[in-house]
Amino acid sequence: MTTLTGRERATYVQKMFTRIAGRYDVMNRLMTFGQDLSWRREVIRRAAITPGSRVLDLGTGTGDLALEIRAHQPESWPVAGDFTVEMMRVGQKRPNGNTLDWCATDALNLPYADETFDAVVSGFLMRNVSDLPRALSEQRRILKPGGRIVILDTTRPPENLLAPFIRIHLNYVIPTLGKLITGEAEAYTYLPDSTKGFLRAEALAVRMGEANFGEVGFKRVMFGTIAIHWGKK
């Protein structure tokens, strides 16, 4: 699964999220013990959204971040973009889902003009893209000067006393829950595999700098298994 590259990887990920769309939100709450809600609020705070801000929630899924942006700043303009249509269909049925602008969006070829958005945010997207430098470049392209990028994603945890328990949670607890809740154990085996195959938080910060983002920083949460990165154009 995680050894796939290019178009094959994109197709696999798209089909996987199509299959689990209906139970995606429930699993997120269970896997993170509900902490993903506070992480998304931190993303929005880092994005410095103000009235009139145009914000792209890239890889929106069912619209968690975009809906939180709408609640946090009702006078902003959040756009919910994803390349899995079924996920967005589920999101449109959520409370206030019909208040968002939904758009079929490929992270490697964003359908927006240069300097369109004041902020681009994403939740659990970047480890899934097949070309990380291009995805970062595209996000920088559509940001206005001074615009902010904020990334929420998994990261390989540090080796410490908690590491064995974290591995048990990732490799056994999450796939078992996934099978029970969604009937899709394979999709939730992909999660730990993609986490182990993704960059450490420190390395992603370096990549953001290489993509010409300034003021790059990050913080780890949930015993070091999740990271929030931010930067500025």
How would you summarize this macromolecular structure in one to three sentences?
By secondary structure, this protein is α/β, with parallel strands linked by helices.
Characterize the structure shown.
The structure is a single chain. By secondary structure, the protein is of the alpha/beta class. It has a single domain, classed as Rossmann fold (3-Layer(aba) Sandwich). The protein contains nine helices and seven strands, in the order αααβαβαββαβαααββ. It has helices at 6-20, 24-31, 36-47, 64-72, 85-92, 132-142, 163-182, 185-197, 201-210; strands spanning 54-58, 77-82, 101-104, 117-123, 143-154, 214-221, 226-232. It has a seven-stranded mixed beta sheet, sandwiched between helices. α2 (24-31) runs antiparallel to α7 and α7 (163-182) packs antiparallel against α8 (185-197). The longest helix is centred in the C-terminal third of the chain and has 20 residues, at 163-182. The N and C termini lie far apart (34 Å). The mean pLDDT is 86.
